[in-house]
Design brief:
Length: 493
């Protein structure tokens, strides 16, 4: 990645929507697709403004058929020996049309990450997908791109409930999984899977070390959180170089189902703040309790501080199975989960003023739901499937509707003050954690009129791959808290 080069950001189109919501709460909802055909357990937005939706292959008949002649055979399936149903889809955000995709091996509770070239890496899963590596190379919405199951490489260790994170050199680290207290890399390194004892130490009677929260820090090291503790990990030497104090409030990872983000990187990019919110009380998973109150606390820690401590605060609601989405402004939206309603998080406000309640939705989004930022600033919600096979006559039925939540407000024209230019990654969202999610605020010069309502802004690119790993990013211009429709750019090493 070129260091500190300048470029001109041409004008972005700002959305100017007035939000009228019940009870004067901000935010509006709309159903984009009334019946997507599958319940998306994993969701990712591509640079072609399409969305990859993934379920599991052994879930039974879905509501979407594969093209004629594209059935898969599974002699071990309890119901479908010959499966002609789609378990992955591609959604075109421009038309809301859906195209079925062919996935052969089971992606149940797997992990993923976009690579530097824009292709989606997908790793692990259940049953025949345990050691599998797959790729999806996105194409134009009218194209025929599809999943490719890699035959020349497999995972060194089976991965189920693991987490992926792209590294500064464009490779990907794959961390943990059920019974896998190791890390490994794609492309594979010579030593294969490397022991990571921290994960074993964080395993309790109900596990709670699954889907660890992995964030790439601007110093090039990794912040890895499991259960209620975190370490700084040097992925080049495969060594823990720092231990952080424990976070109060009980376990936060799967199956206790909290969530985490790294707040926007900005300024000289030397400071990284991690936030961990929500989760279940210890024992609720073992007891299969449905009425144990969710944890309502959030911990906030400056991971790059020489003396880091957790700063605690409470959300408006306790929440499990929620999703934390970085918005183009640098705010965080907390959505989905076992509590009704949605919350917006304002990380730059003082303690006690960081949360505001938004307009609640009407579709329950519980286990296996996802939330992703779209290039136009909306949040795409999909999934919620707490059943082994699709069930529609249940208190919380399998959810096939896809919604979007709009948090954009009107902006007076012309542009006033500084226009921010912010880079937002396209993460792989699953199980209350968006793998690879980050927002980088660029250093900018004041905007200059460029004729016909257009503005020109001088921007300084991120200094290295530790701040912004190579790959495709949504670039948002933000003025007075209002984001533009994003343009996709490719950062290369």
């Amino acid at each position: 990645m070129a260091s500190l080069f300048s470029f001109q950001c041409l004008v972005f189109s700002f959305l100017s929507l007035v939000l009228l919501a019940p009870a004067q709460l901000p935010g509006t909802w709309e159903v984009l697709v009334a019946d997507a055909g599958i319940a998306s357990m994993h969701t990712a937005v591509t640079r072609f403004n399409t969305v990859v939706l993934l379920d599991r292959t052994n879930i039974g008949p879905t509501r979407k058929l594969l093209p004629k002649g594209h059935c898969r055979t599974d002699p071990n399936h309890p119901v479908l020996k010959r499966d002609c149903y789609a378990h992955s889809l591609l959604l075109d955000l421009r038309t809301n049309q859906i195209r079925p995709l062919m996935i052969l091996t089971d992606t149940w509770c797997s992990s993923g990450q976009f690579l530097y070239d824009g292709s989606l890496l997908q790793t692990g899963g259940g049953i025949d997908g345990f050691k599998k590596i797959r790729k999806f190379e996105p194409c134009e919405p009218n194209g025929s791109c599809n999943w490719v199951e890699l035959d020349d490489v497999v995972l060194s260790e089976g991965r189920w409930y693991a987490s992926n994170q792209i590294l500064p050199d464009g490779s990907v680290i794959i961390v943990g999984g059920k019974g896998a207290n190791t890390v490994e890399y794609y492309p594979p390194r010579r030593n294969g899977a490397v022991p990571f004892p921290f994960l074993a130490l964080m395993e309790d009677k109900q596990m709670d070390n699954l889907y660890p929260y992995v964030h790439l820090l601007p110093n090039g090291h990794l912040f890895i959180f499991a259960n209620n503790k975190a370490v700084m990990y040097d992925h080049q030497t495969n060594k823990v170089i720092r231990e952080y104090p424990p976070l109060d409030g009980g376990p936060r990872n799967y199956p206790s189902a909290g969530s985490s983000v790294m707040l926007a990187l900005q300024g000289d990019y030397s400071t990284a703040t991690i936030v961990v919110c929500g989760g279940a009380q210890f024992g609720a998973y073992i007891q299969r309790s449905t009425d144990t109150p969710a944890n309502g606390s959030c911990g906030r820690l400056v991971a790059t501080s020489p003396d880091p401590i957790w700063e605690m605060e409470d959300m408006a609601f306790g929440r499990i199975m929620g999703d934390m989405v970085m918005l183009p402004t640098g705010d965080v939206l907390i959505i989905n989960g076992a509590q009704a309603g949605t919350q917006g998080f304002e990380p730059d406000q003082p303690l006690g003023l960081r949360f505001m309640t938004l307009n609640p939705g009407t579709v329950p989004r519980l286990y296996h739901s996802t939330a992703n930022l779209l290039p136009d600033g909306r949040i795409l919600l999909a999934g919620s499937n707490p059943h082994y096979f699709y069930k529609f006559n249940a208190p919380y039925p399998t959810e096939l509707r896809i919604e979007s939540f709009d948090v954009i407000i009107s902006v007076p024209l012309p542009v006033v003050g500084i226009v921010e230019v912010n880079l937002g990654s396209a993460p792989f969202a699953t199980h209350s954690f968006s793998q690879g999610q980050r927002l980088v605020k660029l250093t900018v010069t004041p905007s200059l009129p460029n004729g016909e309502g257009r503005y020109k802004i001088g921007c300084t690119a991120p200094p290295n791959g530790a701040v912004a790993p190579p790959g495709y990013y949504m670039v948002f211009a933000v003025n007075q808290g209002v984001p533009s429709v994003a343009r996709w750019v490719h950062l290369v090493s």
